[in-house]
Amino acid sequence: MLPNWVSVKPVEPWSRLWPDKTIKLCYESEATWRKYHNYYRSAMRLWYASGLPEEFKVREVGRDACQNTPHEQLMVIDTPELFATDIGFPSNDYLNPSNHPSPNKPAMYVCLYHRDTEEFRVTTFAHELAHSFGMYHEHQNPYYWLYGSQVFTFHCNQMKDFEELTNGMSQDRIWGADGVCRSFTQARNIGFPSIDWLPVPFDEIMSPHGSWANKASVDFDSIMLYGSHNGGETEFSVTLSLADGTLFDEPETPSVDDVMGLKLLYNTVYGTPVRILFNDPRSPNYSTFRTYAGCFT
């Protein structure tokens, strides 16, 4: 049986993988570091306990690297109540000055919900780190949303603040084929929160599954699977269910297939870091190269 997972497609222009299987962390402030750094350690211990090889790492880097090469580090940003992480490592497109708009620097927005237990907080950080390593939500695999064999149902109007967020929108902009409750691309374009539930476009993902995927293909133990009540207006709101109405809980530890997915993702040719030459703006020797580049004949 194939493992169940869904990840970025680790090729330009979509995304890349972290060199040396190592996420490099920066913090927006010392206060943010004090508040969160132990959660990252605990989250990685949770992954290791689930079988992830210790060659996968999260490493804090110094202030100079955070300032000089921000596109090469993951910036941790404290928020009142938001969790959001860029998927994978950013594309090399930012090196091209003609690229417009320039991609965002990789970031992870985090918070500490006052009602969450310490154990669940660690689970949440482990979930977010999987995003940064390149994993999408289990339920966002587009093969689970094919017409005629749909596995999941997304109840968009049960999301937290749905009425406020859609105030002034037409029914077509909400529920149409290109509406924010049906189109991942449209939701992403305006930053609508349905982006965390809707299926990702086929050309942006890598998955061992195809059009034959069905309910039996889903990894219901995946730490990347939202529970049915996740992100709802109330604790009883159902945002995600199976197509037959069945509800399910949110797992709290990485599954065997989560671990297998990351190992397979980084065991591709794309998981081998490309040597950075002196004439690459990411090279620590780039300024020296620029200084002496014109001296040769």
Summarize the structure.
With 297 residues, this protein is of the alpha/beta class. The protein has helices spanning 30-49, 63-68, 118-133, 162-166, 171-175, 184-190, 256-266, 286-292, and strands spanning 7-8, 22-27, 57-60, 74-78, 84-85, 107-110, 152-154, 205-206, 240-242.
Tally the helices: 8
Can you tell me the CATH architecture?
A: 3-Layer(aba) Sandwich
Beta-strand share of residues: 5-15%
The residue fraction in helices comes out at 25-40%
Rg measurement, Å:
20 Å
Low-confidence stretches: 94-101, 271-275
What's the arrangement of strands in the largest beta sheet?
A: 3-2-4-6-5
Shape: globular
Report the sheet with the most strands, covering strand number, pairing sense and barrel closure.
Answer: 5 strands, mixed
N-to-C span? 60 Å
Q: Helix and strand string, N-terminal first?
A: EEHEHEEEHEHHHEEHH
State mean pLDDT (0 to 100 scale): 86
The number of strands is 9
CATH topology: Collagenase (Catalytic Domain)
Describe the structure.
- It is a single chain.
- Mean pLDDT is 86; it is low at 94-101 and 271-275.
- The chain is 26% helix and 10% strand.
- Strand 2, helix 1 (30-49) and strand 3 (57-60) form a beta-alpha-beta unit.
- With 297 residues, the chain is an alpha/beta fold.
- The longest helix is centred in the first third of the chain and has 20 residues, at 30-49.
